Amino acid sequence: MKRAFLFALLLCSLPLLASPLGIYQHGTVIRMRMGECALLHRGFIASFGGQQGLVNETCPEYTLVSEKVVFVIVGRSSNQLVPLTDVIDFRLNKNELAVRVDDAKHESKFVIKEMILRSQWDLLQKHAEEQLSDNQRQAVDSAMVLKTR
After folding, report:
1. C-alpha to C-alpha distance for 112 and 114, rounded to whole angstroms
2. How far from 9 is each of 1, 13, 19, 22, CA to CA, in Å?
3. How many separate domains does the chain show?
4. Are 60 and 75 in contact (CB under 8 A)?
């Protein structure tokens, strides 16, 4: 009886012990661009006023698509590069995203700039594609009108 109780207690405490480690999720990096590291190197108040040291360093900004959420993450320095279209493992760690690429021994930490639900992101992408195709159709139609005159 005592063994069964200890075993049940151990099974119940495993999730509590595993939570600081974090469970890895999978996602695909679909977009990368280089942007300013302004908010990463300076504080919130310093970015809107007061003395600012000009830092011309650029940091990579990635769009990471997971099963339920789409993240826009920013690296802390210009040498934090992640391969595009590869499936990567990541976990949330406080207000950062810890990324592990190709079973690396260490994680790279990224600041989360934006988050959106995957379903909403898909709708936004579809709407943007429709607008682009409508603009292209209008350009072709106006070119045809000019050509026939």
Report:
1. 6
2. 12, 6, 17, 21
3. 1
4. yes
Q: How is residue 109 written in tokens?
A: 């930490």
* Residue 36, domain extent: 23-118
> What are 67's two structure tokens?
């099963």
Q: What is the DSSP string of 77-139?
A: STT----TT-EEEEEEETTEEEEE-TT-SSPEEEEEEEEEEHHHHHHHHHHHHHHHHHHHHHH
**Residue 60, phi then psi, degrees to nearest 5:** -75, 140
- pLDDT averages per 10-residue partition of the chain, 149 residues: 63 50 84 75 51 66 92 83 83 86 80 92 91 78 57
63, amino acid identity: T
Indicate whether 15 belongs to any domain.
no
